[in-house]
């Protein structure tokens, strides 16, 4: 059984995995008193945030003129805590951004949500802006208030069930070459790999992992997470900010085959070699690995990728459940078959002494539309050698547990295979 906290993370935290709110949306309801704290309008009567509007439209000429008249506008923050550089980072035209950077804008400045311009540019899928910010020293592993790095922002956008669009592929390559850490965790203990597993986006992971081994030298002072232009407008010292994650240890696994072999690092290393420095079994706060998430979501391509690169098919969460338990929790027959084919232990017991067959019979949500899927998953477990009359710590067999869950079709499958109470 996937632990309650883990279920909460992946099933009930839609806001966490969904795209972030539009710029400033979360601040729209703030008291008017806060708006009153903003600087008064200029003597000329000009909108005090005119530079933000110019930055948003990419009007480089207007931005240059405003800065010439009033250089302090460079660090002026709007109600969302965003400076002109934040706004320019979401503009389709990067011209204004270039002007702001030339004038010394804080490339790693944070808004009220802790987002840097790079976070915003990544979410907006603007390749040229991401590249420009990285060259200017943007910290590739800077974290926002939720502990998310720009790489988290890339993989936690809209549902990524289809192939990544060209912009996301290009951004993934840019972040990887800049040394982005695939193991960095947010405040919920989730790495970009956990998020990618939930969304099922194996393609982005394929782009990210192989490039790390042969990553180019950091481009600019911010590649390691800091820039000398941060502190003037951002507040706080570099020492008080989240540091870049420590180098990943060499992982286990045989490296797999995959299609990454065509990508070579600077030293000639293959994708299989490169991915070893990532911990594909990195744990969240409930000890769930990315494979738990992929199995729960039924994302087969990312499951295949994780397994091929050494993911432990019998890794246990804090309830003793393995990815096989995650798969049966949502009646994912194909995920069950994938795990069994990869050597998952069908007889493994969690802390309640239950096997995956027990979990399927008792712990699966009693939703009528899932009954047929549960029966199909039960058949897959039995074909894989599950013991139909195994007893849990309380002495119950899977068939007995179907009484409470009212899994009638599962009960029928168990009876046909010799199940008793």
Would you kindly provide a brief summary of this structure?
By secondary structure, the protein is mainly alpha-helical. The protein has helices spanning 4-12, 14-17, 32-36, 50-57, 60-69, 84-88, 95-102, 117-123, 127-135, 150-155, 166-177, 192-199, 202-213, 231-234, 271-274, 290-297, 300-308, 323-329, 333-341, 356-362, 371-383, 398-405, 408-416. Mean pLDDT is 77; it is low at 1-5, 7-46, 211-228 and 235-277.
Characterise this structure:
This protein has 421 residues and is mainly alpha-helical. Helix content is 43%, strand content 0%. It has 23 helices and no strands. Helix 19 packs parallel to helix 21, helix 20 runs antiparallel to helix 21 and helix 20 (356-362) runs parallel beside helix 22. The chain is elongated, with a radius of gyration of 25 Å. The relative contact order is 0.09. Residues 1-5, 7-46, 211-228 and 235-277 have low confidence and may be disordered.
Strand content: under 5%
Give the name of the CATH superfamily of the domain at 313-421. Ankyrin repeat-containing domain
Taking the sheet with the most strands, its summary is: none
Assign an overall shape.
Answer: elongated
CATH topology of the domain at 313-421: Serine Threonine Protein Phosphatase 5, Tetratricopeptide repeat
The helix count comes to 23
Separation of the first and last Cα atoms = 21 Å
Number of strands: 0
Mean pLDDT, rounded to whole units?
A: 77
Q: What is the alpha-carbon Rg in Å?
A: 25 Å
Q: CATH class of the domain at 313-421, anyone?
A: Mainly Alpha
Give the helix/strand class. mainly alpha
What fraction, in percent, of the residue positions are helical? 40-55%
In terms of quaternary structure, the protein is single chain
Report low-confidence residues grouped into runs of 5 or more. Answer: 1-5, 7-46, 211-228, 235-277
User: What's the helix-strand series?
Assistant: HHHHHHHHHHHHHHHHHHHHHHH
CATH architecture of the domain at 313-421: Alpha Horseshoe
């Amino acid at each position: 059984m996937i632990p309650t906290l883990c279920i909460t993370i992946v099933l009930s935290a839609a806001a966490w995995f969904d795209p972030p709110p539009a710029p400033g949306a979360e601040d729209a309801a703030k008291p008017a008193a806060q708006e009153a704290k903003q600087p008064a309008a200029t003597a000329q009567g000009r909108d005090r945030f005119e530079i933000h509007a110019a930055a948003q439209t990419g009007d480089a000429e207007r931005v240059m003129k405003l800065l010439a008249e009033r250089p302090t506008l460079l660090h002026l923050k709007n109600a969302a805590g965003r400076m002109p550089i934040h706004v320019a980072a979401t503009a389709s035209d990067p011209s204004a951004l270039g002007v702001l950077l030339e004038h010394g804008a804080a490339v790693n400045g944070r808004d009220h949500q802790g987002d840097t311009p790079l976070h915003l540019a990544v979410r907006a899928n603007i390749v040229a802006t991401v590249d420009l910010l990285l060259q200017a020293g943007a910290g590739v592993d800077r974290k926002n208030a939720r502990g998310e790095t720009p790489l988290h922002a890339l993989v936690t956008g809209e549902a990524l069930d289809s192939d990544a669009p060209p912009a996301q592929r290009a951004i993934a390559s840019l972040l990887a070459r800049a040394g982005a850490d695939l193991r960095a965790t947010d405040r919920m203990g989730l790495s970009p790999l956990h998020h990618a597993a939930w969304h099922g986006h194996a393609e982005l992971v394929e782009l990210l992992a192989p490039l790390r081994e042969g990553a180019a030298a950091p481009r600019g002072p911010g590649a390691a997470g800091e820039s000398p232009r941060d502190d003037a407008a951002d507040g706080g010292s570099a020492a008080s900010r989240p540091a870049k994650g420590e180098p990943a240890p060499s992982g286990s696994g045989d490296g797999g085959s995959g299609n990454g072999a065509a990508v070579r690092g600077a030293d000639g290393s293959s994708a299989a070699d490169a991915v070893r420095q990532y911990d594909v079994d990195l744990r969240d706060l409930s000890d769930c690995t990315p494979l738990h998430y992929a199995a729960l979501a039924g994302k087969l391509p990312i499951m295949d990728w994780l397994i091929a690169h050494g993911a432990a098919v019998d890794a246990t969460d804090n309830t003793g459940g393995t990815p096989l338990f995650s798969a049966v929790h949502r009646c994912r027959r194909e995920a069950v078959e994938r795990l069994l084919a990869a050597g998952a232990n069908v007889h493994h017991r969690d802390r309640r002494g239950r096997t995956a067959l027990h979990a399927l019979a008792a712990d699966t949500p009693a939703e009528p539309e899932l009954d047929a899927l549960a029966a199909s998953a039960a058949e897959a477990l039995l074909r894989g050698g599950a013991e139909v009359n195994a007893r849990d710590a309380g002495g119950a067999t899977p068939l007995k547990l179907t009484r409470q869950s009212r899994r009638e079709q599962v009960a029928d499958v168990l009876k046909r295979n010799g199940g008793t109470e």
